[in-house]
Input
Amino acid sequence: MTDFPHTPPRQSWTFSNDVNAEIRRAAATGIYDIRGGGSKRRLPHFDDLLFLGASISRYPLEGYREKCATDVWLGTRHARTPIHLDIPVTIAGMSFGALSGPAKEALGRGATEAGTSTTTGDGGMTEEERGHSRTLVYQYLPSRYGMNPDDLRRADAIEIVVGQGAKPGGGGMLLGQKISDRVAAMRNLPKGIDQRSACRHPDWTGPDDLEIKILELREITDWDKPIYVKIGGARPYYDTALAVKAGADVVVLDGMQGGTAATQDVFIENVGMPILACIPQAVKALQDLGMHREVQLIVSGGIRSGADVAKALALGADAVAIGTAALIALGDNDPALEAEYNKLGTTAGAYDDWHEGRDPAGITTQDPALYGRFDPVLGGRRLKNYLKVMTLEAQTIARACGKSHLHNLEPEDLCALTLEAAAMAGVPLAGTNWIPGRNGF
Output
């Protein structure tokens, strides 16, 4: 009798170990999973695009001898004092509450040294961030936590948050263990009690009300500050068009790879669209309205390198915003803390339980013993270095494409490696002139 080899056990793709573990966790606890960070699934992204450097048909710029400018103006449509940044990489809104005070200080320090802006996030303005940020954008959220007219006037711009990429249509969370005395006082909340902010603003029911709110904010700030409107990557064409109609100076577009301090995992992984699919639709809305470059577009969601910056700008954005990458630059998820991450049941690079307030890096916590470890001066220096490298990388690519300014990059400088990326970004599949979905194909 012949012995045939046994077929090795096969793990189900549908019911993988990760899926089975979540089913068991849900069955044991009866509650949904909450975590921070962004989507962890593989999505079409900037890595699926390549630049077509210059040779004969295009003329490249020479190394560091020929200039490639990087500055950007934001809020030029209506504001009396638009913002001028040295680089097109800004720091996205991350709240005090989600982040520690020293972490907010480090963001201000690093951004200022690099010549760019920071954003407050939910929960109000901290003196650490205002005091160390040359340019600070004040987020105006549905929760209204920490909002007051004086701080609106102290800011350099106001960002009305309608949606966020990790949870478009969903509100924010801040669990009780992170609501310290100071956080509770700033947000007018009871200490130690879980809070969830609203998913929509309390004083409007549609886009016409957004126009009224923008006018109110302009009157409060004497038409001095640029008004941004931030939208999650869900229906970017129509949302961008409506934000422009309502009077926005800047549209901030956040894709589903963007992070969050805390929300349901099912939200992070199953709601929204990749930023690669969002940018061309938002740009088309601006172009159709004759407002491209007059209303600036900032995009965020998984920006990690100067190449990502250059690709976003080539697709039509004016600037980008980084959040998760900035935290990593400060020292979050550092392998040097692997032993402490292991004690929390995770590993460096995968830690996402920011809502628990036990971050050993001292960045996403309100525990004095933990955030006391974090040096905001060193953190600011690390962030400045990272922003400098991103800018140099973007300039290197732009020069190779023959561009004397990052904003001269264009879709014609790009090709795509996959059908999905080609269709989403609206650029040809590499080696062809075919854009899937165009001209009936």
